[in-house]
Design a protein that fits this description.
CATH class of the largest domain: Alpha Beta
Radius of gyration: 35 Å
Strand order of the largest sheet: 6-5-7-8-9-11-10
Number of strands: 16
Bound molecules: manganese (II) ion
Structural class: alpha/beta
Largest sheet: 7 strands, mixed
Helix content: 25-40%
CATH architecture of the largest domain: 4-Layer Sandwich
């Protein structure tokens, strides 16, 4: 084995018709850099495709040609991604590609080692191997749910896989071969490209468990935000998507170059020329002249325009006209927030705090006689002093009772009146 090994780790390419120009530009930029750097191996940790594609679709051909060019630089290992993206069976064609090096496809749990002729599927790495990889692609969770709770079944399955992975890494380590665990799933506590933190015990991967497997590097796909965890010189990392695929994603896009020097792993993040994510924010209706001016710099960018207006102004915002200004952008999202207008019949009373002060202002404006103001103030103080509704109710009832008893005898209650 050699003392220094370099592996390019790319992920979530998403070749498909929707963003093909963007994906192609970023994929070509990565390819150019990889050709120049000449790493010992290339790993793609899932989601090469965006969805089911026909063999004659331009996006399918673009993906296959790109993989072939990568395989002219170094041996390529492609991991199965999410089933809705890498539809089962689609990746198999890649292993038939003719290139300087071979393309290996991992669609099931499998162990690989990098030899002189490229990736070899092997139960145990040998001393002439320079890198050992445990591939753990997604599985169909539905198949685990035959009996009982699917999440409980999944945890038991995952624990078995990680145990096998641990044994494989331990063996490689006895021969000082660098180890990589690659998977495609969600790490509990990771952050998405929209800045949302995903927390649930039902996510496929737990960061602590991944570190416990003892791999130098856990190279992940699925989450499009590039992020890295480090513990005692070992790493768990998402390469992130190669291109900017969604609105709200402000992060640099790219791929990781891993380097293993005499048992020490290091990483370098290489960015791709992903399109810009540009946001304009207005407090009030968007300034159309300003937007017209700004639109010329937004060609091919993902544009987000946010504004906050009150209910009366909302009708004056022409969202279609705003979108039309950004017709050259890759996407234009217009998001308006309407603030409901609070109406107060007596704004000076509404603006004053405390019921007694409000009462005083009201009495003043209504020219209420001072004796009545005093009585009302006393009532109010009494109400405010009473801690419970029950006490208020009891005191009112007591007062009604005493009023009834003070009734004069000639006052007759209506029930005693008989009509003739
Ligand atoms: Mn993906």
């Amino acid at each position: 084995m050699t003392n220094s090994v370099r592996m390019a780790h790319l992920s979530d390419i998403h070749f498909g018709p929707a963003a093909l120009a963007e994906v192609q530009r970023c994929a070509d930029a990565a390819l150019e850099r990889i050709a120049a750097e000449s790493p010992n191996a290339v790993l793609i940790s899932g989601d090469l495709f965006d969805h089911r594609l026909d063999a004659h679709a331009p996006a399918f051909r673009a993906a296959v040609q790109w993989i072939q060019k990568l395989a002219n630089c170094a041996p390529v290992l492609v991991l199965q991604g999410t089933f809705s993206h890498d539809v089962p069976g689609t990746l198999d064609i890649l292993s038939a590609l003719h290139a300087r090096f071979s393309v290996a496809v991992a669609t099931e749990e499998s162990t690989w080692a990098l030899g002189l002729r490229g990736w070899e599927r092997t139960a145990q790495p040998q001393s002439d191997h320079s890198l050992a990889v445990f591939a753990w692609p997604p599985i169909n969770r539905g198949l685990l749910a035959a009996t009982g709770d699917v999440n409980v079944a999944y945890r038991a399955y995952a624990s078995d896989v990680l145990q096998r992975a641990q044994v494989f890494a331990a063996h490689a380590r006895t021969m000082s071969i660098p180890t990589v665990l690659t998977s495609h799933g969600t790490v509990n506590g990771c952050v998405t490209e929209n800045g949302q933190t995903l927390v649930s015990p039902d996510h496929e991967l737990a960061i602590g468990e991944l570190f416990e497997t003892g791999y130098d590097v856990v190279a992940l796909g699925h989450i499009h935000k590039h992020q890295v965890w480090e513990k005692e010189g070992r790493y768990v990392a998402y390469a992130g998507s190669l291109a900017r695929l969604h609105s709200g994603d402000y992060d640099p896009k790219g791929w990781i170059q891993w380097r293993f020097d005499s048992g020490v792993a290091t990483l370098e993040f290489h960015t791709t020329p992903a399109r810009d994510m540009i946001e304009f924010s207005f407090d009030g209706p968007p300034d159309m002249l300003k937007l017209q001016e700004l639109a010329s710099d937004c060609e091919n960018a993902i544009v987000r325009i946010r504004y906050t207006v009150d209910a009366e102004q909302s009708g004056s915002v022409d969202r279609k006209a705003i979108s039309a200004l950004f017709a050259n952008a890759a996407a234009c999202k217009v998001e308006g927030t309407i603030v409901p207008r609070l109406t107060a019949r007596a704004p000076h009373i509404a603006a004053t705090s405390g019921a007694p002060a409000k009462l005083a202002i009201w009495a003043d404006t209504q020219e209420v006689p001072s004796s009545q103001v005093d009585a009302l103030t006393r009532c109010l103080q009494e109400l405010l002093a009473n801690p419970s509704e029950d006490e208020i109710a009891t005191s009112i009832l007591t007062r009604i009772d005493s009023l009834t008893m003070e009734q004069t005898p000639n006052e007759t209650s209506s029930s005693n009146v008989v009509g003739v």
